[in-house]
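B., you asked whether I could sanity-check this one before it goes into the benchmark set. Here's the sequence:
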Amino acid sequence: MPGYETGAPITVDWRNQQIEVSTVDHELPDASAVDDRNKLVKAGMNAQLASLPEDAWHAVARAAVTPATVALQLREAHDANASLLLEEHVDGATLRSVHSRVWLSELFPAIQPRTGQELLAVDDPQVLGMAEDDNPQAILRYRYESVNHLKRHVRQTITATLYRNSYEESILSRRVTRALIAHPIIYDFDDGTESVFGLVVRDGITRLASAWKVLAGPDSDPEEAANLAVNTLLAQYQISASEPAKPLTQRMALGRQNRRKQLREEFNKEIANAGEGNPPSLRAIQIAQSYQVPSHVTVGVQAHERTALPVEDVFDDALRSILASVHVEFKPWDTAAQNVEVAARALKRVLHGSTGSTVEDGLHAVYELAVGLRRASDTPNVYGNHDIPGNGLWRAVQLLHTLTRPATFEELRSRAKEIKGDRRMTDKGYAGLLGPIVDHPWRSSKKSAAQQARNAWSNGGVLFKEVLADGWAPMVTNDFTTLIKPALEGSREARLTLALAGGTALIADKLLTRNVGSSVSRTRAPGKVPFRADVHKIVEGLARKGNELGLWTLALAAQRFEDGRLPRNSGTRQQLGLPNDQALEGDDEYQHLVVDLNAPDHILRDNGKPVLLLEWDVAVASDPERARQVLEPAESDGEDGRVDEDTDANGGSDAFKPSTIGNDDGRQEDPSDAVADTEMPVEQQIQEGRRVLTNCLADAKTSVDELEKLGQAVTYPPLFGPAEAWNDLRDTALHVLNTLQNHEGDYVTDRAEEY
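And here's what the prediction gave me:
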């Protein structure tokens, strides 16, 4: 590109597109002087509005590109009215920060809130606050098992962040423009490794990860970008035999400094090779755009008198409050991530509140169980009852009961409203907060049903009025079917235990989803229901006094529930026989079944085969009378009020018994088909079915083409409707495609070898 002028835009190839780089530095800043860093440390120690230990100030000094400008801000930090520090006021505290450009290689990623609702391979560290003389400090401790645990966690955080989102094109074009929010951190290690001081990014983790992706290059994947970050951030300077020993913090700092020196040398070489009058190379641009980033580094915190939190927890809670507000206005976390964050903070506030919820009440252990710091197997220890099975479903039952006790429920809801800034929160809103807490043990194994399950929790979950009432406790059992007898005899504890356990199981396995009008159908089919009702109303109906069919449905769902996989009839693509079907790998026994109260084992069978449970059956079991009214044809009642001859002894018509509505895989059966089967030879049936399939596919193609044409005139709403409708269409199309592909081998013919 001859005739290039310094400062002019540059167009570069990045992956499959061209990016216009608006401006690129042709010189990188040199390493800061030791004297300047020491002056910053001294200014920080003397600043009355800042609150950090000395080693933390050294971490700030190492990270600052120009320590002198930070020192200037700190020298004026004696009077809040005249201070140059940035201030943020939140409920309970005031935070104060310095603004500076910071080396990318000095910033570690914190725990990523965007993935807080996911079950990841590497556990998050334990987070602890710090205080001095009963005043909070603007620093946290992250406790890891070992340095390797830290490495794996950093790698996982950057990888997961980049898979969710990346700003690499924007950063390549304009660098990072919005300041990150960071603060000092101490990494402690359980294996005895000495502690390490550094800076951790709390807001802007996606920008941080994207900057590493820019540095890694256009052909790198998230894992390669994460490896580059880990190898740089945790590089260690190798001390020679003649040098004095250095602490681990200093060895790592020197290792990062050497990496920056190598990058600067590489950059200078690239600029020199480009020559005067030519634009910098892509590699030079990558280094220049990611070498340093703007940051607000929090260095001070002042607790307000009215805060109920311990001083050690004030700083972390205040920062989380700021982050939550940022990600409602700018780039929102998804609903589940927000719910995890709000619920965790609200529970922590209740833990130290003044209305009776104290550590002595056992709520601290409940908090750890709820946020994933304790495994489901610890549930018996948390509740001091070793008769409680240590599995995910009983964890859910116990947590749901604890977090819905009237005193805890009201305080948690009040705290959650404060955190979210809402004036009111309904029972459905509260249930939505609990959904991502409840599903923690099976987030990974039931991931394909997670979104529908969380929608169901936001539609009320299992929180109906009786559950929220005081004066009952779950009945512990290893066999949920043993609770049916006491439930039918009037035991509220038995009924509500079945409601929590069975309702949670049905929601997790996508056999109970939110109230959607498009799901209503008179025909029993997967994903369909005979009438509309909110999820908590369905669960309430199943657990209603005297509803034996509903109680058995809850009991069998809870008893059959497995944490580690989805059932065959989960309503996801597993039932369609698509590839990677977990439920069909190995045995196929994990399946929820329709109840038959007249059968010895209470399982409905059709031609000897158990009938798979559908959401349609769950709705019917919740209110058989309503289902009867909806489904029974108006003319079925005689003029004299007598019941038709095909009505069974229980008042139900065979027209909506599962065994006559559909077969065991949920497909609708037409009575006329049985007649046709006896009158038409099988080869003719196949020929006719092939003709119908061909016509249907041709019609489908015509409809898709027509929709595509119509869609050119609008951009919103989505062409194929809501996400649920699009998913159903896609899964149906994939099922057809997969079935056709499976028969490809039918058409392989031997061909004569050609010469």
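One thing to flag: The chain is about 45% helix and 10% strand. Otherwise nothing jumped out at me.
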